[in-house]
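chain and backbone:
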Amino acid sequence: MSPTEYGVAVRHKIPEIVEKYNDLIKKGPPRCCHTCCEYTQDGVCEVFSSEPPKEFAETPGACDQWLFEIPF
């Protein structure tokens, strides 16, 4: 089929790799310490003023205080 139908330009089907990318964007980053705004480069959580255990820091959804963007 031509990319033009009835004189109107029609896009080609979205490639699978683009669909996968769009799905990742919709899901957002994994909710773990390493993507949280409160987790410092030194590995300290600024909310709790302490270093979380390695397993906790790597587990998506482990913390209900996770913040990706500043809320103002």
User: Anything to note?
Assistant: The two ends are 49 Å apart (CA to CA). The mean pLDDT is 90.
